[in-house]
Amino acid sequence: MPTPSTDPSPAGRNRADVRRNERALLDAAAAVFVRAGVHAPVREIAAESGLGMGTIYRHFPTRADLVVAVFKHQVDALATTTPTDPTDSATDPPYQALRTWVHRFADFLVTKHGLAEAMHSDQAGFENLHNEFVERLLPVLDRLLTASAAAGSTRPDVRAYDLMLAVGNLCIGVETFPDYHARQMIDLLLTGLTRTDPTTQEHEEH
Amino acid sequence: MPTPSTDPSPAGRNRADVRRNERALLDAAAAVFVRAGVHAPVREIAAESGLGMGTIYRHFPTRADLVVAVFKHQVDALATTTPTDPTDSATDPPYQALRTWVHRFADFLVTKHGLAEAMHSDQAGFENLHNEFVERLLPVLDRLLTASAAAGSTRPDVRAYDLMLAVGNLCIGVETFPDYHARQMIDLLLTGLTRTDPTTQEHEEH
Amino acid sequence: MPTPSTDPSPAGRNRADVRRNERALLDAAAAVFVRAGVHAPVREIAAESGLGMGTIYRHFPTRADLVVAVFKHQVDALATTTPTDPTDSATDPPYQALRTWVHRFADFLVTKHGLAEAMHSDQAGFENLHNEFVERLLPVLDRLLTASAAAGSTRPDVRAYDLMLAVGNLCIGVETFPDYHARQMIDLLLTGLTRTDPTTQEHEEH
Amino acid sequence: MPTPSTDPSPAGRNRADVRRNERALLDAAAAVFVRAGVHAPVREIAAESGLGMGTIYRHFPTRADLVVAVFKHQVDALATTTPTDPTDSATDPPYQALRTWVHRFADFLVTKHGLAEAMHSDQAGFENLHNEFVERLLPVLDRLLTASAAAGSTRPDVRAYDLMLAVGNLCIGVETFPDYHARQMIDLLLTGLTRTDPTTQEHEEH
DNA sequence: AATGAATGAGAATTCATTCAT
DNA sequence: AATGAATGAATTCTCATTCAT
């Protein structure tokens, strides 16, 4: 809804308007995803955002586009921060860096209702989501895993792809079954990954 | 109403027919579940079975009833065979028994498209499914896990419930992502479960 | 299915069997009609009777046939007892006889959940029901009404048909709205039938 | 799209369109209700209106909402005109005012196929309909009846609620049975309501 | 004659997506 | 660009009626 007196542009909405709408949409979608999962009705997101449904479709033609966009920021954080942090790699042995990152990844998934599930959805329109994760995060995890294996801390025969999916999977059901301790299971997996040096392993577990 | 000694059935359509139909229904449902997941439309199962939709509702009032029935046989096998097999417990140390059962459990889940997913569904009508699994299988796993921990082979601080859900989770996505090796991830988890004994871990993996 | 030891007839069930079934059906239907109205599912009546649904259809091809049969006894009572009772007509003036019969008719309707409603149903298969009532009871009411009018107790310009439907109508809703006093309304109608305030009434009618 | 000063609507489809559709829906529903009763399938109303089923649900979430809306105008007329008309109360004695209103009420019901019936429906979604009538019209009738009783024209022991339901009931079946004269029966009821020959009437009631 | 399993049309309801304004 | 009303396919579930045994 343009405010004629303040906007002299004859063409209507300007770039700022559009960007503002997109932001509102993303915030609304994030809120709704938390509340009702990533399969929530489009109308609900529209209502939350205060914008029309048509606007959603204009900005994000498929649901996956929206989901990807919603989590892009957090994915970016996971993708960029860790591997470039020099202090981390200085102080932490590679295995510690791997553990830390996996935990952050898990925390991210666990706090997004339905996201872990959606990562595997073969529903039309969700391939993008999986691809996004693979493209952005797999290289990061791969680097960490390779470094850890190179240091002799972890087995060299485990692929980052499998590990990423496995961790994602272990996060499923956290909301549905409050009694399920995903964190501990992930730790089990990580421990299983290590190369048998007892001193390294025993005191890590929580 | 006379009860001829040879035919206890008082009704027209005889028992054999009815059982045959129920079998057809279960087979059809199994096939459709593989093809389209356990959320497949009832109509599709009816079409696959060659029977009417009403017949499905007669036999299995809720979807979960059908799902449970479809997998009952396999669940029964998992629930009964293992813990009572004396030769197993004689030859295998407790940890081996645990591994074997977990692998069988995983094989079962992996071959049923959508089953692992359905186990977590909070959709109406699927609670039964989760309950069925918990009620039937959790005691078995619990016994195996307790025995293994008692033998000092595995950590005593891991609950069977978490382990069951975790294994179930790790099986998710096997069909969707052919490149995902659930088996290896499950082995990682099992290894992580052991008490960090270097000799135990190295040669188990496949 | 014959009872071999007690029934030597080679042709199967004898007349007594069939009649017994019909009676069971009628009793069951009466019970279900009270409980769930005359639109109750056929299956429910079958279950109540302990007989099969097919048997119901054999005995009563349409639902109205069943409804008519269920109430036949009571209709018979209304149709035959009153007009032939000599003591009644001796002690009661004609108007009193009319009132008494109308009350009995109303009591009959009120105690059959859904019957008053069904009398008007234009649903396929219910014409019979209306016809049955008209054919059996209208002559009775007509006789009573004519006698009462002849004695100068009631208006001569009211037809028995209208009165019968009106009384039937006034019985509707007794179960649904416990606060509705059908009895009093019927009394109002009967009172209105008597010649009372000439100035108010005569010129209004259309 | 800037908001022209003449159109305050922020939305695409403008208000006039929406209102036109709602009107089309109401007209279609009224027509279908006459033809097939208020239980007619939603799809039929949609077809009659030329609009989609979803549109009906958008405008009228429950069937009762639609029914209420269809008859709202007439209910409004009955609810507001009469009691505030000063000339009526000046020229008519209270009993005449009562008669007039009851006739108007009956005319309304009689011309709406299935409405009188629906008023009593205990089907889910029809409570509102009954409530609407009671809430809107009962106070009006109560005022008229009380005034008439106060003037000594009618019996003081009859409640407006019973009278309203009774009149409604007497209107049932007008379309189904063309030979049924609801009008006359209502007049009978009203006449029975008047205080005339005390000896005949008072002691009969139970 | 009796049975009740099977059938499938019918009705309600939801929601992704389009498109006139 | 934005809107949100309109659409109607898709899905679930019920129950009258048929018919093989």
Automatic annotation (TrEMBL), chains A, B, C, D:
Pfam families, per database record: TetR_C_43, TetR_N
Keywords: DNA-binding, Transcription, Transcription regulation
Domain HTH tetR-type: 19-78
Entry-linked PROSITE patterns: HTH_TETR_2 (PS50977)
DNA-binding region range list: 41-60
Signal peptide: none
Gene Ontology MF terms: DNA-binding transcription factor activity; transcription cis-regulatory region binding
PANTHER family cross-referenced by the UniProt entry: HTH-TYPE TRANSCRIPTIONAL REGULATOR BETI, HTH-TYPE TRANSCRIPTIONAL REGULATOR RUTR
This protein's name: TetR family transcriptional regulator
Source organism: Streptomyces griseorubiginosus
Lineage: Bacteria, Bacillati, Actinomycetota, Actinomycetes, Kitasatosporales
